[in-house]
Write a structure and sequence with these properties.
13 helices, 7-stranded mixed sheet, binds zinc ion, single chain, 2 domains, about 350 residues, alpha/beta, 5-stranded antiparallel sheet, Rossmann fold
Length: about 350
């Protein structure tokens, strides 16, 4: 791989996170095929890595119009048909998230609930992301915004749990879910997020669950989220972590690569820099293991070598050990972020 001075996807020649101009080509000669005005077309790009903060990014940066060709209504993250929001609200995952949302400083009972939640996480080898646990710690009247609601299932689950001040945004390609959300009283918007008007200083929490890596203008979106939040409000994110053992084993076979939809591939350092530059107070940035991501990477690698896959159940059995290993080394498949807009 060649180190070189290259443009960095933001048009200024500098990394959007750390402003370094030094970068490395990770993958080149990548192609996205699409149809425009009834004709087939091809867009060529590469994946670059900032040698300072480790941020990976697609280069050149696609236009907004080209970006829309990456998605259609069949995109898997839009499909919520197989999940029942009422059942989701009573799922083990949600119950553990409610345990984890307890504040230990609220007394012995809350301390016990937190401890039980942590025990569940270690036994199963799973981690509850802040995007799930922190909203549940807020009151039923909290004003919440789900930026990139995808299937809409989180908003519908929160509605089932009695939250009534819910708002969601997604791109125009997500055509199927808006009516489901509107039917439950969720306020919905689409179009181009940066051009939409939202009430400033009015949200207790803005949530981006596996959305930040897709953003065309991450800096501008963070600034808009800052404006939308009340003083003391939370921004919560979960996203793939480039510093993962899965990506180190095989970048091209990692399920988290998803090029070119994932325009940015963040490290803890690049995410921290972007959030601090916006003015957020960092409360927690935690990388965490996801056994299915490791399973996907290893079995895709084996398939490329025409070798039989390892049964996924074995990865689930090893999940607690994998969680311990990832926590100690701070190299998780995903990271979850909890930051706060400072009180003015
Ligand atoms: Zn950088």
């Amino acid at each position: 791989m060649n180190s070189a001075l290259r443009p960095s996807g933001n048009g200024t020649g500098a990394c959007v996170a750390c402003a370094s101009r030094s970068s490395t080509v990770l993958l080149k000669d990548l192609r996205h095929e699409y149809t425009t005005n009834g004709h087939s077309a091809e867009w060529r790009y590469c994946l670059i890595e900032c040698t300072h903060c480790g941020l990976g990014f697609v280069d050149p940066k696609p236009t907004w119009e080209l970006l829309q060709t990456f998605y259609d209504s069949s995109y898997g993250n839009f499909d919520g048909s197989h999940r029942d929001p009422a059942r989701e609200a009573n799922s083990i995952k949600c119950r553990v998230a409610r345990l984890r949302s307890a504040n230990p400083s609220d007394g012995p009972s809350a301390l016990c609930r937190t401890g039980l939640g942590i025990l569940c996480e270690w036994v199963t080898g799973r981690t509850t992301p802040y995007t799930l646990s922190i909203p549940l710690s807020l009151g039923r009247d909290a004003c919440m915004f789900d930026l990139g609601y995808g299937s809409g299932n989180w908003l519908l689950m929160m509605s089932e749990l009695g939250y009534r001040n819910l708002h969601g945004y997604d791109i125009d390609a997500n055509t199927e879910n808006a009516s489901r959300l509107l039917g439950k009283g969720v306020e919905v918007s689409n179009g181009r997020f940066l051009e939409n008007s939202y009430r400033e200083g009015s949200f207790d929490c803005v949530r981006l669950d596996h959305v930040f890596e897709h953003l065309h203008e991450p800096v501008q979106v963070l600034n808009k989220c800052w404006d939308m939040l009340k003083p003391g409000g939370y921004l919560l994110m979960s996203l793939p972590c480039k510093n993962s053992w899965s990506m180190k084993l095989s970048l091209v076979h990692s399920p988290a690569l998803q090029l070119p939809k994932h325009l940015f591939h963040h490290t803890q350092a690049s995410a921290r820099l972007l959030l601090e530059n916006t003015g957020f107070e960092i409360l927690k940035i935690q990388a965490y293991s996801v056994a299915s991501q490791l399973a996907g990477t290893i079995n895709e690698t084996l398939a490329a070598r025409q070798t039989r896959p390892i049964p996924p159940v074995l990865f689930e059995m090893l999940a607690p050990a994998y969680k311990l290993f990832s926590d100690v080394t701070k190299k998780g498949d995903f990271m979850t972020v909890w930051v706060k807009k400072l009180d003015s």
